[in-house]
Every structure is written in structure tokens, then in C-alpha cells.
Amino acid sequence: xxxxxxxxxxxxxxxxxxxxxxxxxxxxxxxxxxxxxxxxxxxxxxxxxxxxxxxxxxxxxxxxxxxxxxxxxxxxxxxxxxxxxxxxxxxxxxxxxxxxxxxxxxxxxxxxxxxxxxxxxxxxxxxxxxxxxxxxxxxxxxxxxxxxxxxxxxxxxxxxxxxxxxxxxxxxxxxxxxxxxxxxxxxxxxxxxxxxxxxxxxxxxxxxxxxxxxxxxxxxxxxxxxxxxxxxxxxxxxxxxxxxxxxxxxxxxxxxxxxxxxxxxxxxxxxxxxxxxxxxxxxxxxxxxxxxxxxxxxxxxxxxxxxxxxxxxxxxxxxxxxxxxxxxxxxxxxxxxxxxxxxxxxxxxxxxxxxxxxxxxxxxxxxxxxxxxxxxxxxxxxxxxxxxxxxxxxxxxxxxxxxxxxxxxxxxxxxxxxxxxxxxxxxxxxxxxxxxxxxxxxxxxxxxxxxxxxxxxxxxxxxxxxxxxxxxxxxxxxxxxxxxxxxxxxxxxxxxxxxxxxxxxxxxxxxxxxxxxxxxxxxxxxxxxxxxxxxxxxxxxxxxxxxxxxxxxxxxxxxxxxxxxxxxxxxxxxxxxxxxxxxxxxxxxxxxxxxxxxxxxxxxxxxxxxxxxxxxxxxxxxxxxxxxxxxxxxxxxxxxxxxxxxxxxxxxxxxxxxxxxxxxxxxxxxxxxxxx
Length: 676
Fold this sequence. Notes:
Elements: E1 2-3, H1 16-25, H2 40-74, E2 76-78, E3 89-95, H3 110-123, E4 130-134, H4 148-156, H5 167-179, E5 185-192, E6 210-215, E7 224-231, E8 241-250, E9 256-265, E10 268-277, E11 282-290, E12 295-302, E13 313-320, E14 324-330, H6 336-343, E15 348-354, E16 368-372, H7 379-390, E17 394-398, H8 405-413, E18 420-424, E19 428-433, E20 455-456, E21 459-462, E22 470-476, E23 481-488, E24 491-496, H9 511-523, E25 533-534, E26 540-544, E27 555-558, E28 561-563, E29 566-570, E30 573-577, E31 586-591, E32 597-604, H10 617-624, E33 628-630, H11 639-648, E34 650-651, H12 653-673
Parallel strand pairs: 3-4, 3-5, 5-6, 6-33, 14-15, 14-16, 16-17, 17-24, 25-32
Antiparallel strand pairs: 1-2, 2-34, 7-8, 8-11, 9-10, 9-12, 12-13, 18-21, 19-20, 19-22, 22-23, 23-24, 26-30, 27-28, 27-31, 29-30, 31-32
Helix pairs in contact: 1-2, 2-12, 3-4
């Protein structure tokens, strides 16, 4: 047996007090009056013996009571398997307050069980120890050590939050807080359901500070989640059927049948169909949306699932432009077929400009720029077109029969495209169209039918040295490219090897290929416009910046109020970074003037918490290795005694307090009921 505070043993000198009381109190004589003294000697001898025995027993009870109290204050313990550490302690307690903690344990939600365990941990330590209470929110006030009383108050304030952290981040945060104190002993506790997708402490190598995991187990529930959604086409058009693809995931080990999917947009709700999803699998469905107005739209997908509901809704927003702007740069006169083609596509507005009268600053206002048979491409124009494409623009090039190869090849080199070689005047038939690529996907109802494809009387050969960066959309019968695509960051370069002049190509008369090509190249994008963002992720939101002036402050407004996000303006683009400023899923408006909404953004909760697969206690210990302790206790058990046993050994001070009370009770009984 060892003592936590051995200096208290000096108080054993207090055992002299009951001895002194015995010597001076019980030696006092009392007068007893007798009417007959014949039996005086006999009574005197019998009473003296009984009195001495009682007094000795009282003395023994008093001495044992004092000794037991002294031992209780010295806090004796019997060391267990772990080393007992003596000194002031700094204790960090992490309580997982993510959405998965709203699941039920055997009697209460895991969140309440986690708070109960946190209180038990704090109660297991002394009032002089210091504590950190940490949650997934990583609040600033949780990054310092507080007193025991304040720690208990912070535990009561913990609520479910959309934030989710991987456990290695949590441990790192705990280490920072513990290192800020001057305590001798540092200990960290993590209370969680330990979902497999956030528990990344496999074979943890570090042994300092001591890390203890307190697993909580829920009653396994079925959970379905709308994983994500996206539009098939990168640009949505008014009056057209826009296809939305929805992916729903089944996280349980049972198949889900007849799951109803609904959509709400423009103030109307309607069913979108039913889905059946195998166990542990995903299923996709398509929702057809016919958009009747331009501008920003808010939409919401939903399924019905209980009890985990935070992932049953998916918010998204999108913008429908009033028109698609196209710039056609001509060498001389515009091509009448090209003008007629754009005029025949609803909501397209084409502008013709000669190559000598260009305003490069206006390039970002166009979705497509067409180079129509320019003989030369200047270095300045090449640089601006390259910058325009990298920012998300699309460039379509029809070369001139007399194109200057050095200027063209310098331009193509900036896009990583194949260089032009000689122009061959020879008839050549187009043999195939790539219907798997976006430009010609879903264009032809019957792909196997004999389509009338273009015929050319002359075209440029290419060296194919950058063929890996090339995606051929339309091919000649000999395998050489007629129309190729090159992706450059966020935009595209589309290059036709034949001039558009009808003396060299009948493409302008082939509406089956020409019209879809113009339409789809204008609305294509290397990166789909984000229709939704995830709360808690370090994402950068990019949008248009059209305001003038230097002192410009953009604001975001949602259901919980408005705030100023971190923002950066680069040219015509605005970049917004959010740092835990959004905690509620829904729609947020971007504005300068409160009455004029510039953009709408949709935010959804992180789906990490949708997967309820957790480590069992025995699996968890094997997973994390020997350097981390797993404290597995039954739901009805109290964690305080287990922690005291681990940190202090088998504590005996409660036993000695009980013994002291027993001895005091024995003394009272002797004095009251033993009459002499």
C-alpha cells in the first residue's frame, strides 16, 4: 500500500489525544451512596473490572477512528498495472458533438451519454487540477485550461454541431492546450462513437501525453443520404429540359425499397420518383427540370429517412443567363452561314468584330470566341485568348487557307495543341463523330443510322506530337482529326483543321453536325459551375466581380443573419473563403446593396457523418495499438471510479472514511448502552 499524500501520516501523533482523555477523564471518582454497606467490597470489585474493560474499548475505538481519518486524508492506494503519477494534472476532454452523436444509445442520445462521461472524467480529478473541454467546433474559448468548476459548466453547454474533425486533428489540438500549462502530468480523453471514416489513429506511435479513448455505442440505425447532385450540362438554358443527376447512398446493411425523392424549386414541390438501393450501395436518378425564367434559382432535393435526418436534404442553386454571348473575330467579312446559325439558336447573341478592332478587356463577357479564318494571330491576341480560356472561356478556331504557320503554331503551343503542317488540297470524307464527348453527346437519336457527314476539299495536317492532350471529336476516315478539343485549366480550345469557307468544306451546310457543335462548344466548361458547397470544408467560392471602386466589401446573408466573409478580388473574379462562418445548411445571398442580390450559394452539411459504421471497443484497441488506452465501460457503469483506479491505483480513502465512521459509532454505542 502506498500513499498519495504521505505527509498526512504525521497526524498520527493525534492518537495521543484519546489516550490523554482516557487518563484524565476516566480516573475521576464518583460518590455512590449506599444504605447498606455489607456488600460494598463485592460491588466495588465487580464495577471496577467492567469499567476498565469499557474504558479500554472506548479508547481503542477512538484511536482507530482517528487513525482511519488520518489514513483517509493521506489517500492510500494499491498500485495497479499502470504507473501511478503523483502531482498536478492537466486533463483534456474531447466530446464528439457531430451529427452521428444524435443517434440513440440503449436509453438516451449518444450526445447526452457523452456529456455524462465527460462529467465523470472531470469528477475523477482533484479540484486543483486544470481542464480543457474540446468539441468539433474548435472554439477559441476551448483552447485554454480552466478550473474544475468551469469545465463542468462548459460540458453542460455542448450541443450538436455540423462540424466534423478527423481524430488526428483533435489530438493535435489537445496537445497544444496541454502544453500551454505548467502541470506535471498531462492526460487526454476522447469521447466519441469512433466512426471509421474519421478515426485515423491506426498504430498511433506517440506515447505523450497519455491518450484514452472512451467509446460510445449506438443502437444501429438505417441511414440514407442524398450524397450529391449535379447537372448533366454545365450551363442551364431557359425553356429547355435540364437534366439533374442525383446520387443517393444507402449506408445500412439492408436494402432500401421505394425511397421517395422530391424536389422543390421556384416555390413548387413535386415528387421526382422512387428509388430502390441495395445494402451499402449507391443509386442515381435523373430529374428533368424545365426552367421558365432567367436569373438565380434555389432548389431543394429531399428524401424521407428516420432518425438520422441532417443528410436527407440537398440544397443547390444555379444561374440561368438571359443569353449566351458569342464573339466572332473575322479577318475580313463575316461568314453569313455562321451568322445564320447563331441567329437560329434561341438566347444566343453573336457579335462580329474585325481582328483589328478588338477590346481585350471585354473577352470575359463572352462564353465563346470564334476565330473565323484569320490569316495571322498576333502574339497579343494569342496571349489574351490563352488567359481567357484558362479562366473558363471557350475558343473555336477555323483557320484560313493562307494561315501563317509560325503565328498559328505559336498560338497553339500556348494551349499544348498539335502544330499545323502543310495544307493539303484533296477531297476527304469525315468518317465518325465522338458521341461520348459532351459536344455531341445526346445529339443524335439513332447513333447507328447513316448520317450525312461533312466532306472537305482541303485541310491542314497536324504533327500529333501532343496527341495525349488532344481529344478528337470528329475524325476523317483515315483517322486524322477534323475537329479536336484541348482542355486548358478551366476552358477549352476547339480546333478545326479545315477552313469554314464553303469552297473547302460543306460543314456549314451540314446542320446535323454544325449547329450542335456551335451550341455545345459555347456552353461547355472544363469545370462545372458549383451548384452546392459543403459546410466546414476549406473551399474557395469563385464568382464574378463587376463592381467598380476600391473600397468594396461583399457580404453574405442567410437564415441566421449576415456577415462579411474573407474575400479577394483578382481582375474580374471574386474569391470568397469561409472559415467556420456558416453552420446552418441552406441558401446564402451575396450582395453589396442589401436590395440587390448578386449571387446565391447553397451549403449542405458534410456527409462524412452519414456513414454510421463505428469501431467496436475490441476492434478499436487493435486498430489504435498499445500506445492508446481504450476505456470501455457498460452504459450503466460510472467512469469516475475506473479513472481513479487507473490514475491513482486502487484507492482506499473511502474505505478508511467508512471505518472511521464505524469506530465512532462503536464509541457512541459503548458509552450509551454499556452502563457500569
